[in-house]
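Dear H.,

Thanks for agreeing to be a second pair of eyes. The structure we're designing against is below in token form, covering all 277 positions.
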């Protein structure tokens, strides 16, 4: 659930360049969101079931859920190892020690940190996770807005959303988010973001009936591990020594709600372990 904020002609606009919306089907998920409903809106996108979004951006919901927690962002973990009764994590900010470790990054990244010889690595390496190249573009408000969102199984741009149509968004420019298909993304994954924007903008412009040179902003983002094609099929993985847990949407499916279900089940397992210790 990511939102990129950029300044265009002196005004700050947001682009939801990750998950576009989420559903609420699990009653426990609905209950967990009650305290932060002020950060949630319903996107009138014409879908058969309600499409919920964070407002004023998708990242607003995790920020609301994290209120009051001690979180360190922008800290890269470069290596980890188990030694004695603790996990030793190496980072650019110095070493970190922990008795228990929970890893919720994409499975391939977790596998690299754990190493090929770790007992959980085979389970992580068996998952199918596809990339996604994403274009964020802004056009003058008087230009065509032919749809709220459009999906295709055959075109290079598999999903196009009129991002500025979501509730709580800043008025003015029409913002679009276009996400490429898994095959197209894999074929162009190693290109520089600025080159991807040049390549993707004409595809978006053709889809909405505008000229590419009328865009006032265009940028691309590479999601190397975007969508799980073959989920694990269980809510989390736990090491035999009960000091390591792994989870994420890759456990159950490519949905925000699946990520929450994985994290909740993982947290309950950890709590039971700590209570019994």
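And this is the sequence the design step returned. I haven't edited it by hand at all.
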């Amino acid at each position: 659930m990511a939102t990129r904020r950029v300044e265009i002609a002196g005004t700050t606009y947001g682009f939801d360049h990750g998950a576009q919306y989420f559903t609420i089907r699990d009653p426990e998920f609905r209950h967990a969101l009650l305290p932060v409903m002020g950060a949630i809106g319903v996107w009138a996108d014409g879908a058969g079931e309600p499409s919920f979004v964070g407002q004023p951006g998708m990242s607003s919901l995790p920020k609301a859920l994290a209120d009051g927690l001690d979180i360190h962002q922008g800290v890269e973990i470069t290596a980890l190892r188990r030694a004695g009764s603790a996990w030793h994590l190496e980072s650019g900010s110095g070493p970190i020690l922990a008795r228990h470790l929970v890893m919720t990054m994409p499975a391939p990244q977790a596998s690299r940190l754990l190493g090929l010889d770790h007992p959980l690595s085979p389970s992580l390496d068996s998952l199918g996770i596809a990339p996604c190249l994403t274009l964020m573009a802004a056009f003058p408000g008087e230009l065509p807005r032919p749809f709220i969102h459009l999906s295709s199984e055959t075109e290079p741009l598999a999903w196009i959303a009129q991002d500025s149509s979501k509730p709580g968004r800043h008025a003015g420019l029409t913002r679009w988010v276009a996400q490429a298909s898994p095959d197209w993304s894999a074929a162009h994954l190693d290109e520089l973001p600025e080159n991807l924007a040049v390549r993707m903008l004409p595809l978006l412009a053709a889809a909405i009936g505008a000229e590419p040179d009328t865009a006032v902003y265009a940028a691309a983002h590479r999601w190397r591990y975007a969508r799980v094609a073959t989920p694990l099929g269980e809510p989390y993985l736990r090491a035999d020594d009960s000091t390591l847990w792994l989870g994420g949407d890759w456990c159950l499916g490519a949905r925000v709600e699946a990520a929450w279900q994985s994290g909740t089940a993982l947290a309950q397992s950890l709590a039971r372990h700590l209570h019994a210790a």
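Two observations from my side: The chain has two domains: 4-66+128-229, 84-127+231-276. The first strand starts at residue 4 and ends at 8.

Warmly,
E.
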